[in-house]
Each structure stands twice: as structure tokens, then as C-alpha cells.
Amino acid sequence: MNKFTKNIEDTYFPPIVEFKAEAAKRLDYSKPVFNLNQAIPNYQPPDVLKKAIRDELEKPSFCFYTFDEGIPELRDAIADSLNRTFAKKVSRPNICVVPGANNAYYSMLPVLASAGDEVILLTPYYFSHYMALKVLGIRPVEIILDPSAQDATSMLQAFSLPYEKIEAAITAKTKAVVFVNPCNPTGKSYTQAEVDKLYEICRKKKIYLVSDEVYSCFHDSYPRSASVLNNNAFPEYCVCINSFSKTYSITGLRVGFICASEEFIYHFIKVQDSNVVCVSTLSQAAALAGLKFADEWLNEKIVFLRNKKEKFVNLFEKSVSSFKIVSSGSFFVYLNYANRSIKAKELCFKMMEKENIIALPGEYFGSDQDYAIRLALGNLLENEIEPIIERLARITWG
Q1: For residue range 42-80, what is the model confidence (pLDDT) as tens digits?
Q2: Disulfide: which of 42, 92, 198, 294 matches 290 by Cβ 3.0-4.6 Å?
Q3: Angle formed by the axes of helices 344-355 and 385-394, nearest 10°
């Protein structure tokens, strides 16, 4: 008799946790370490958020339960922010505050699918999306996107959405398509036309489009980011997931939101109440302060991160390297390499030992990713860009 469930046995260990452990064994900490493992901003949140937390601590209710769906002031502020940014207007009943996007996704799945149902993932996918499906016994169905980029006159670009393949993969068991825009791990920003076409397929088939827009502030088109919230049909057959983790550099506070129909929110709260109940008052106070007072700070950070990514890409393209950038954007650069003598996981271990670089191998992002590597640039200092490109150029296969 198995000691643990088959679902949990069949789910791989969290990649970030595994690679932190490997780094502890393989890195030389007497030399500079280049941590490109996780999408973490390397700057502090704005002071106004810290003040909001300190002020909240002075209130007798700071450690009490709050509303399952979030404090009304924060839900209203989220709706106001979305209404200033996107075309479709929403209100408080469309918003539920959540303890981070990962938990939102996990809690959303039982609303849409049961064990044995199917959910379509677009590969390369975000590994936590795959892991949650496996834990819950929901079958992930991969649609592998093409990493090859054609000439400028071609309609095909790296990781374009193969609409016919997606539609053909939808069966009676399919309950949703999961879409990440901008994408983690590739960084690709999808256009509004691409979003609308994918959404139309889901509506036609009467399945949900789960749109993970955690990096929407870092979309190539920001402040006019492509979003399901620009489609007039929203929230029919759609749920939008977002987070303040990267937006305000508060990854550890675990606070975000979902935007969906009132009916969906009603059922979602059943799962949230049986899971985490609510988000801490301190985290909600920080998010509210960010929405009210941190626009200028956020815009500066968006420009800072965009410039850092562009500098990395420009210098990388001038270097002589065995790697090729196939996509980049928001926090990420996605590399491929042609040598098939070593898979990405083994190569990443070698990068730790030889060059003190921590990066994540493509195996964790789905099928046919064995020779891809994700670099997360959020934790990279600007004066580290040239040294790390030099180190990448030194990587050999022997």
C-alpha cells in the first residue's frame, strides 16, 4: 500500500526549491554569485507601503480575520485601477483578494474542473500551473508552441499561438485553457489581437480562459497592456489572475486578486474559505497603499527593468555564445542551444559549478524543452550584466 497518493508522488518537487538546494552544494560563495533562478525584484518596496504596514500594526484589528473576499476599500481600489487601465469596466463584486497568484490558481481549479478532467497548458508553461493540475488529479494537455522566429514579413513569430491546434485539442473533458501574458518563462508579450482570438475560441467551446496576468505591468505595450479585460465579452467564460508581488516588490507578503463574474467569485470563495480563509490585513494594507500612492514609483521601476532587460539582450546579441535568445520580455530571457550532448538540467548544474550562475532548465517548463534555459533578470544588478554575459559565452559542453 502506497504511503502517499499517486497524484502527489507523480508531481515533481518545486524547481526553485530544488535549485536553491543544489546551489548551496555547488556554488563557490567566496566569489560573485549570479542568481537568475527566480523572478524576484532586487529593490525594496516603496516607503509608503512600509508606512502602511506600520500604521496597520497600531490598529487592534491588525491580526484579526478579515473578509474572505478582501477588505472593501482594497477591492474598490483594484476595480478603480483596472477601470483606468482597461476597456471593460468592473466593480467590487468582480474582485476577490487572494494570498498570491499561485494560491489563486490552485483555488480556482476546483471551481472549473474535477479529477479526470483536462486543462490545456501552452508549452513552455509556468511549472506551478502544471504542478497544481497534477496534485488535483486534473490531466494537463500540452500544446507545444514553436520557438522558431521567421523573417519580419512572416506572420509566425517565436511562441505564437497555434489556434487550430488549441481548438483541435479541446474535448468533452476540457474545462479550461491557461494563458500567461506576459509569459513566464519566455517573457513574450502577446498582443490584444492574439488575446481576443484565443478568448473567442474558449467562448465558442464554452470552456474557461484562465488568464494569468501577473506581469501585466511589465508587458511590452504597458501602459496599454493586452488583456482579457479589454475584451467586451469579459467575464463570460474567463477569470483573470493578478498579483502585487512583482508590481510593488512584496513577493513575501502574498497578496493579489482575481477578477471574474460575480457567480465565479461566489463559488471561488467556497474554496478560499476552506483553504486560507483570507489574506492578512498587513498585506492588504500594503497593496492598498501601493494602488493609492505608488504610481510614480511603479513607473520608474517599469522603465528600470525594461532598460535592464534591453541592455542584457543587446549586449548578449553582440557576444559570441553557444546560446541563442529565442524570446525575452518582462523579467525573463529564454535561451535555446543546439548541442544535444547535454540536457539543460545537467548544463545548469555545470553552470553553477563552473561560473557561479543559477538558472532554471527548460525541463520544468514542459515537453520539448530539454535544451532550453530560463534566465530571470529581476535579481540581476546592472553592473553584473556584462560579467554574466562573458560567463555564459565561456560555457562549453565538454
Answers
A1: 999 999 999 999 999 999 999 999 999 999 999 999 999
A2: 294
A3: 120
| Tens digit of each residue's pLDDT (9 = 90 or more) over 286-309 | 999 999 999 999 999 999 999 999
CB of 209 closer than 8 Å to CB of 231: no
| Angle separating helix axes 101-112 and 262-275, nearest 10 degrees | 110
Question: Where do we find the cell 479589454?
Answer: 230
**C-alpha torsion angle, residues 168, 170, 173, 178 (rounded to 10):** 140
**Bridge-partner residues for 139, per DSSP?**
118
Provide mean pLDDT across the span 307-324.
95
Mean of all residue pLDDT scores within the chain: 95
Rounded CA-CA distance 398/396 in Å is 6
Q: How far is Cα 260 from Cα 97, in angstroms, rounded to an integer? A: 12
Residue 294, phi then psi, degrees to nearest 5: -115, 20
Establish how many alpha carbons lie within 13 A of residue 207's alpha carbon, considering only the half-sphere containing its beta carbon. Answer: 23
Instruction: Write down the pLDDT at residue 154.
Output: 41
- Rounded to a whole number of angstroms, the CA Rg of the chain reads 21
For position 157, what pLDDT does the model report?
81
DSSP state of 384: G
- CA 311 to chain CA centroid, nearest Å: 22
Q: Considering only the C-alpha atoms of the chain, give the largest distance between any 2 of them, rounded to a whole number of Å.
A: 63
Distance CA 392, CA 250 (A): 30
Give which of 48, 82, 94, 40 is closest to 216, Cα–Cα: 82
Say if residues 250 and 45 touch (Cβ distance below 8 Å).
yes
Which three cell numbers, joined as nine digits, stand for 374? 530560463
Question: What residues does 238 pair with on adjacent strands?
Answer: 209
Query: Other C-beta atoms within 10 Å of 99: how many?
Result: 21
Structural contact between residues 302 and 146, judged by C-beta atoms closer than 8 angstroms: no
Residue 153 has pLDDT above 50, yes or no: no
Pairing relation of β-strands 139-144 and 332-337? unpaired
d(Cα 144, Cα 366) in Å, to the nearest integer? 8
